[in-house]
Amino acid sequence: MKQIPRGWYKCTNKVILDDVQRVCDVAKEYGLIDYTPEVYIFKSSRTYGWARYSTKVTDDAIPWFRRRIELRKPIVGINEQFVLQNPKGALQTIIHEISHITVYEHNKKNDEQRWAEGHSGLWRSHYYKIGKKFGLKLSDITRLSDFSSIGVELTERKSTTSYKYSLYCPKCGKQWLYKTNCDCIKRPYRWQCQKCKQKLESKKI
């Protein structure tokens, strides 16, 4: 089972690792967490960081259905380009993502829904508790998405490979494009259209 997203790799940046440890130490003081999650680096033009505590796997009996399972321990992903250009913002992002993990652990202990917490009141209270130790206020909480607004220029990754295959529903015409002759293209009958309940077909385009 693949637990680490494609394109993520283990963080070796000492500054980032030290910041994560500092944030986790504060969270431990408040009893919000009792471990330090592993840290990974990724490249993206859409997000600064990501807390990941589950993954989705395909059930052999129902190939088109993907069920969510928990990771052994949550992990944190940090945007590589953002970290290099905005160290202060990187610390804020680390606090942001660690707060998601502390909320997850809180809900886990209390046997509550863990997946859809988002930026709730509980998350904000955890962010405030941890953030105030680093001089952050509630007004500093942002769901960052506009990199240009803080002077960070990210390079879009452009694919050099075009789509060559199509998985489609013969009834409604909905299609999914693929670049390689993967299992979905070789055995399209294992999947079905959720809308039409029709078995899918594939073709080379």
What do these coordinates show?
It contains five helices and seven strands; from the N terminus they run βαβββαααββαβ. It is of the alpha+beta class. Residues 61-66 and 143-154 have low confidence and may be disordered. 29% of the residues lie in helices and 21% in strands. Helix 3 (87-109) crosses helix 4. The protein has a four-stranded mixed sheet with strand order 1-2-4-3.
User: In sequence order, what are the helices and strands, one letter per element?
Assistant: EHEEEHHHEEHE
Q: What structural class is derived from the secondary structure elements?
A: alpha+beta
Query: Helix segment count?
Result: 5
Mean pLDDT: 77
**Major sheet: size, sense and barrel closure?**
4 strands, mixed
| Cα shape | elongated
Main β-sheet, spatial strand arrangement: 1-2-4-3
Strand content: 15-25%
Question: Helical percent range?
Answer: 25-40%
Spans where pLDDT lies below 50 across 5 or more residues: 61-66, 143-154
Rg calculated over all Cα atoms: 20 Å
The overall strand count is 7
The end-to-end distance, rounded to whole angstroms, is: 31 Å
